[in-house]
Write a structure and sequence with these properties.
alpha/beta, about 350 residues, Rossmann fold, about 35% helix, eleven-stranded mixed sheet, single chain
Length: about 350
């Protein structure tokens, strides 16, 4: 059902029945939009000011826009510059009462940088200041955090989907009205290696917010690691010309498949699930069964998906070689503008 609704919101579903459902969804989106506008007006009337720098990294659309990779990139840069910081996350879709896949991934990759999971970001920020003595907090998925006064608002926009059909949920993929983009200081176009329509997206963003800087980025593969040996990174060409099965539960599975193809992997199976999907034992057994049937001994997934798998889940794969693709965000255009803007926060 989730996939069908998403296909309706992205206009992938056609036909008369789809047309009728889209009309009903459009009516629902008007109600949703009115509620969101009311919440924005209420919470942004007197935002909380913190005794530290507040950097927000978020998006206005559903689906994967690469914001978590950007959180990693900026966190590492500021840490290396000597700043004490913490990442604040909502912890979407917690697993067994623990933090969700994205904050778990950040905690694993960022090492000594605290990752605090709390739906109340004001409370989380105060905790970060008190317990860790931070001078900066980074809001992961922070665009819709209207209660906080921010020093820098960064919005990631997937080059693959842009702003969608410009409708709000559930008829479209917008989480806020487009005017929310006027709050942005910087736009970062992500996953630019998989589309050629950057000119249109840039034009749209310039019309909405001509004052904001627009940067471009892509995701580069760092290599693979066996899920039980994350410290041993294999080279990106490790699977070149080899057949493999893929499975993923992320916002834009096309980007994962595209990266695998760019590495020369022969994709024998490409199994896709909803974003943040928690895999059942039956589903994992089915993945393995389909891989065996296709005579594929290697199965590859994403870091985000791997963070949702327990030791018991991993045991289901048995003799299959389960590898994880490790990626990183790379700014490909105007990186110096981002660096200058970040450093300027501490000269105020």
């Amino acid at each position: 059902m989730k996939r069908y609704l998403y296909n309706l919101a992205t206009d992938k579903e056609k036909g008369f029945f789809a047309f009728l459902v889209k009309f009903l969804l459009l009516l629902a989106s008007f109600i949703y939009g009115a509620l969101i506008r009311g919440l924005i007006l209420f919470f942004s009337f007197k935002p909380a000011r913190l005794n530290c720098r507040v950097i927000s990294i978020g998006n206005i659309t559903l689906g994967g826009t690469g914001k978590t990779s950007l959180v990693e990139f900026i966190s590492r840069y500021l840490r290396d510059k000597g700043h004490r910081l913490a990442v604040l996350s909502r912890g979407y879709k917690k697993i067994d009462g623990e933090m969700g896949d994205e904050p778990a991934m950040l905690l694993k990759h960022l090492g000594d940088i605290p990752v605090i999971v709390d739906k109340d970001r004001v409370r989380a920020a105060k905790r970060a200041i008190k317990e860790y003595g931070v001078d900066t907090v980074i809001l992961d998925d922070g665009l819709q955090q209207w209660r906080l006064k921010k020093d820098l608002e960064i919005v990631t926009v997937s080059a693959a989907q842009g702003l969608g059909n410009r409708h709000m949920l559930p008829r479209g993929i917008l989480r806020e009205p487009l005017r929310a983009l006027r709050r942005a200081d910087i736009f970062i176009l992500t996953k630019t290696g998989f589309t050629g329509d950057l000119k249109t997206i840039r034009s749209d963003l310039n019309k909405i917010n001509p004052a904001a800087q627009i940067l471009e980025s892509t995701h580069v593969p760092l290599g693979f690691y066996a899920i039980d040996k994350p410290e041993e990174l294999l080279k990106p060409d490790y699977l070149k010309a080899k057949p493999a099965a893929l499975f993923s539960g992320i916002g834009e599975p096309e980007a994962f498949s595209g990266l695998m193809r760019s590495l020369g992997v022969h994709i024998g199976l490409d199994l896709r699930f909803a974003d943040h999907h928690n895999y059942s034992e039956e589903e994992l057994e089915d993945i393995c069964a389909k891989a065996r049937k296709a005579d594929l001994g290697i199965i590859v997934t994403t870091v985000k998906d791997a963070s949702r798998l327990s030791d018991a889940d991993i045991g289901i794969f048995g003799k299959h070689k389960l590898l994880v693709l490790r990626i990183a965000l790379k700014i490909t255009k105007n990186e110096e503008q981002l660096i200058t803007r970040l450093l300027s926060l501490y000269s105020l």
